[in-house]
TrEMBL record:
The keyword Glycosyltransferase applies. GO terms for cellular component: Golgi apparatus; membrane. It holds the Pfam family Glyco_transf_15. Residues 57-66 have a biased composition (Low complexity). It comes from Daldinia eschscholtzii. Residues 41-93 are annotated as: Disordered. GO terms for molecular function: alpha-1,2-mannosyltransferase activity. This is Alpha-1,2-mannosyltransferase ktr1. Keywords: Glycosyltransferase, Transferase. Residues 71-84 have a biased composition (Polar residues). GO terms for biological process: cell wall mannoprotein biosynthetic process; protein N-linked glycosylation; protein O-linked glycosylation. Signal peptide: none annotated.
């Protein structure tokens, strides 16, 4: 009996010792490996500091923190982006992230490193979307595409702007999709209403007339507020003041190819200020006096007109008449400091005073494009051939099969609008002395 008890005690002691060893081994292997931020391509001293998404239970609205300006920053799903939780795959390590190469073509080192967090510095940049609560599922589609093709490796922030408060569903859905931080701003009334110098009766008659003539969005008040806001105010919203670069994303757009490098960094390193993927002619009926207003601005502010500008993109006769070419502004990657410059603000104010946002139906696309064409040097405007894009009804699909295969594109090259008669992209190539990509002739019809 005594011998039996001693054996049991020995068993218990042995089992306890064995369990202790097991616990110690597993515990030390978990805590003993310190994960450095650089392991996942996050530099402690990189050029932008972005606070980690604060953790929460992911349960929704209660976890969003209010910002001083009344907007809301989200945090659901935060853990997925913290440095200790990398995305799928095995990210490459670089001692000094600022030195990490930017692979711009398949022969460059790192081109195919599409897993995990991308190395390299981050720019002070954000995506920005103007949207209504009812746009939630359409903007969700766009976000998913931008994330899958690019941002899941870069985790840039996303600012959402609305003339009404965003609802909980909009915030919950969008914040779950964006890999960076999300912010929600409400537009002040003075940026989304008739300025007091506008004659309301005159504006109403214009809308009635345009409705009769069946001009698209011709009878819409909100569309006009939207165009004026995108022309003159989005870049001055408090949330946008935190950033130097923006990438505009609209609901229901598509991205057809992988984006292998950081377009923000490309813009910064190559001194670009504005960019586009599609260009076309504007409907004459929406802008009958826009160019008169532009000419008045040029006369009053010759100091703002850049030497070596893109007037030849906008006019075929040295500036007398507008040829209606513009960059399609539902896609833009651009520099916010430029939009906030005195030159751009003087340009916007001058046009705004002439009233054409309400007495006609001036779009933000021709307004931004004319500004870029006149206030910037032509080398400061960039065409992103490798960002394949769709916004109803036009497609930009890179010309050249090799490019499309290298970029894993899923667009039909026949849909490419670049070289068709209604596109202005040929003109952009010509005024910049650029060689058109091989195979463009076959896509002209
Ligand atoms: N908050 C808010 N956003 C709007 C309103 N109208 C348009 N938007 C947004 O402004 C942007 C441009 O509006 P769209 O309706 O896409 O205009 P569009 O691209 O000219 O025309 P579509 O062919 O219909 O896409 C989109 O991001 C819309 O979500 C509005 O009344 N309120
Ligand atoms: Mg749109």
């Amino acid at each position: 009996m005594a011998a039996g008890s001693a054996r049991i005690v020995r068993y218990i002691l042995f089992a306890s010792f064995f369990l202790a060893v097991l616990y110690f081994a597993s515990h030390s292997s978990y805590e003993g490996v310190q994960l450095k931020p650089s392991t996942f391509g996050v530099s402690p001293g990189s050029s932008i500091t972005r606070p980690d998404k604060s953790s929460d239970d992911g349960s929704g609205a209660s976890s969003w923190g209010s910002k001083p300006d009344g907007s809301i920053s989200n945090s659901p799903g935060s853990a997925k982006n913290s440095p200790s939780k990398p995305g799928a795959g095995s990210p490459k390590q670089y001692q000094d992230l600022a030195e990490a190469p930017m692979a711009l073509s398949p022969s460059d080192q790192g081109w195919n490193d599409l897993l995990g967090t991308a190395p390299g510095p981050r720019m002070n940049a954000t995506f920005v979307s103007l949207a209504r609560n009812s746009d939630v599922w359409e903007i969700a589609r766009s976000i998913r595409q931008v994330e899958d093709r690019f941002n899941r490796r870069y985790n840039y922030d996303w600012v959402f702007l609305n003339d009404k408060p965003f609802d909980a569903t909009f915030k919950k859905v969008t914040s779950s999709l964006v890999s960076g931080k999300t912010y929600y701003g409400e537009i002040p009334r003075e940026h989304w209403s008739f300025p007091d110098f506008i004659d309301q009766d005159k504006a109403r008659k214009v809308r009635e007339d345009m409705a009769q003539r069946k001009i698209i969005y011709g009878d819409s008040v909100s569309y006009r507020h939207m165009c004026r806001f995108e022309s003159g105010f989005f870049f001055r919203q408090p949330l946008m003041l935190n950033y130097e670069w923006y990438w505009r994303v609209e609901p229901s757009v598509e991205l057809y190819c992988d984006i292998h490098y950081d377009p923000f960094r490309f813009m910064a390193e190559n001194k670009k200020k504005y960019s586009f993927v599609l260009s076309l002619y504007e409907y004459e009926e929406t802008i009958p006096t826009l160019w008169d207003s532009v000419k008045k601005f040029m006369k009053n502010h010759p100091e703002h007109i850049a030497e070596g500008n893109s007037m030849a993109f906008l006019s075929d006769d040295g500036g007398e008449k507008y040829n209606k070419c513009h960059f399609w502004s539902n896609f833009e990657v651009g520099n916010l400091e430029w939009l906030r410059s005195k030159a751009y603000i003087d340009f916007f104010d001058s046009l705004d005073q002439d009233g054409g946002f309400f007495y006609e139906r001036w779009g933000d696309a021709p307004v931004h494009s004319i500004a870029a064409g006149l206030l910037l040097k032509k080398e400061e405007i960039h065409f992103f051939n490798d960002i394949a894009y769709y916004h109803v009804p036009f497609t930009h699909c890179p010309t050249g099969e090799k490019t499309r295969l290298d970029l894993r594109c899923h667009c039909n090259p026949k849909d490419n609008f670049d070289w068709k008669g209604y596109s202005c992209t040929s003109r952009y190539f010509e005024i910049n002395g650029l060689e058109k990509p091989q195979g463009y002739e076959e896509q002209q019809e």
